[in-house]
């Protein structure tokens, strides 16, 4: 059985550098023929909502959720983001419980728009757990829209959470959030179509691939990669650096290099060969190999992007103890490995790599689930914009290029 991969500490340390941007819906939805808008809602959500900033996440928070019989749990997550047998196993472990699991979070902004008015009124969402990307989770924490977690009910989290994930800036004491899964944004491509192995972000601009390239519409993904190719670091880049990266994308788009800008729906065209090269998510390519075994996921020498999603309880959850029990349950290494084997993203649970030996030995050293030290050294976080106006300026510039 392999020793724990201590290099994951570095990976998660990078993940929590600031407020991560949104991760778009899992690519397997695209392979199933489902698509979602990824650009239009962002500006309205960012510019049209001002949080009340009622929480100071830096202050220690205590919660008291007594142990009660678990009868109901309302769990909202992204599509295809859990092995459903895990839910059945949970119900067996807690007889009489019923998990209402809803795959309704197709996009951070879309989901926020759906529940925004309830949050601002102080109403319960009638949901016990929601899973949101760090930047959106941070917004909810700052606005006072989340229930603190009674950590006495989550001993597995306390014991098994990757050490470097314990103190993110948006929730430094993990009073309100618990990491769910993490992943990477880089380049997916078909070597048979390109005629060669790719090594660089700049390969996106090879004239031979004209009209066969797609970029994700969110600037944090595509412009982030271009920014890295320019020698900048996403954690420290200025607004002007980001605008220069977007300008480069604009130039290539005007040349006809880019077939289209996408949400998760690049996956269908990439699997079918309509696209040769795409900005892509790590778990997507792992899954798409079932349809097109030639596909490869490239983490360029210059670097790539990383992100994470989090579980949290919205304000006035109807069943807080049930929610905390579920959080504790999925932090059992055996359960975490089972989830990781299904979703093909990086688990935040210490011990999951060893547990994977019994679940699927072929995945123990899979780069897309358990990145090596060499891979981790290349990864950079999504940006932490200094203020809302900077974020809006970048989003608006990208929308002008994409036509959103």
Please explain how this structure is put together.
With 404 residues, this protein is an alpha/beta fold. It has a domain at 26-183 and 310-350: 3-Layer(aba) Sandwich (D-Maltodextrin-Binding Protein, domain 2). The protein contains 17 helices and eleven strands. The chain has helices at residues 8-15, 28-31, 40-48, 84-93, 108-121, 134-143, 155-160, 191-194, 222-229, 239-254, 266-272, 282-288, 320-329, 333-343, 352-359, 373-376, 388-402; strands at residues 72-77, 98-103, 129-133, 146-147, 177-189, 213-216, 258-262, 277-281, 296-298, 304-314, 379-381. Strands 1, 2, 3, 4, 5, 6, 7, 8, 9, 10 and 11 form an eleven-stranded mixed β-sheet that branches. α4 (84-93) links the parallel β1 and β2 (98-103). The chain starts with 7 loop residues before the first helix and ends with a helix. The relative contact order is 0.22. Residues 1-53 have low confidence and may be disordered.
How would you concisely characterize the structure shown here?
The chain is an alpha/beta fold and 404 residues long. Helix content is 37%, strand content 16%.
Question: Helix and strand layout, with pairings?
Answer:
Layout: H1 8-15, H2 28-31, H3 40-48, E1 72-77, H4 84-93, E2 98-103, H5 108-121, E3 129-133, H6 134-143, E4 146-147, H7 155-160, E5 177-189, H8 191-194, E6 213-216, H9 222-229, H10 239-254, E7 258-262, H11 266-272, E8 277-281, H12 282-288, E9 296-298, E10 304-314, H13 320-329, H14 333-343, H15 352-359, H16 373-376, E11 379-381, H17 388-402
Parallel strand pairs: 1-2, 1-3, 6-7, 6-8, 10-11
Antiparallel strand pairs: 3-10, 4-10, 5-8, 5-9, 5-10
Helix pairs in contact: 3-17, 9-10, 10-17, 14-15
């Amino acid at each position: 059985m392999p020793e724990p991969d201590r290099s994951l500490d570095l990976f998660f340390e990078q993940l929590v550098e600031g407020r991560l941007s949104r991760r778009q819906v899992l690519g397997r939805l695209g392979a199933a023929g489902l698509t979602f808008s990824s650009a239009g809602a962002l500006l309205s959500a960012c510019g049209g909502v001002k949080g009340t900033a009622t929480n100071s996440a830096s202050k220690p928070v205590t919660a008291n959720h007594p142990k009660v019989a678990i009868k109901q749990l309302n769990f909202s997550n992204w599509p295809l983001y859990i092995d459903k047998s895990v839910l059945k196993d949970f119900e067996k472990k807690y007889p009489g419980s019923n998990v209402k699991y809803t795959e309704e979070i197709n996009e951070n902004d879309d989901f926020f728009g759906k529940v925004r008015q309830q949050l601002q009124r102080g109403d319960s969402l009638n949901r016990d757990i929601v899973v949101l990307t760090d930047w959106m989770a941070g917004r909810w924490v700052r606005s006072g829209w989340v229930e603190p977690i009674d950590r006495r009910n989550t001993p597995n989290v306390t014991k098994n959470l990757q050490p470097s994930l314990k103190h993110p800036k948006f929730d430094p004491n993990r009073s309100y959030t618990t990491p769910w899964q993490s992943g990477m944004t880089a380049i997916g491509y078909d070597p048979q179509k390109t005629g060669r192995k790719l090594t660089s972000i700049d390969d996106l601009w090879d004239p031979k691939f004209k009209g066969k390239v797609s970029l994700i519409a969110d600037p944090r993904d595509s412009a982030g990669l271009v920014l890295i190719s320019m020698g900048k670091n996403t954690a420290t880049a200025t607004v002007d650096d980001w605008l220069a990266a977007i300008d480069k994308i604009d130039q290539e788009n005007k040349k006809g290099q880019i077939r289209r800008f996408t949400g998760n729906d690049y996956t269908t065209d990439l699997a079918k060969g309509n696209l040769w090269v795409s900005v892509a998510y790590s778990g997507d390519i792992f899954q798409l190999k079932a349809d097109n075994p030639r596909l490869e996921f490239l983490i360029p020498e210059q670097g790539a992007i990383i992100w994470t999603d989090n579980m949290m309880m919205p304000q006035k959850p109807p069943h807080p103890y049930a929610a905390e029990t579920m959080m504790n349950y999925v932090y059992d290494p055996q359960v975490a490995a089972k989830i990781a084997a299904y979703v093909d993203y990086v688990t935040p649970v210490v011990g999951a790599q060893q547990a994977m030996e019994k679940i699927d030995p072929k995945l123990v050293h899979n780069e897309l689930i358990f990145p090596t030290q060499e891979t981790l050294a290349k990864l950079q976080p999504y940006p932490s914009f200094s203020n809302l106006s900077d974020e809006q300026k970048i989003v608006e510039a990208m929308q002008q290029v994409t036509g959103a």
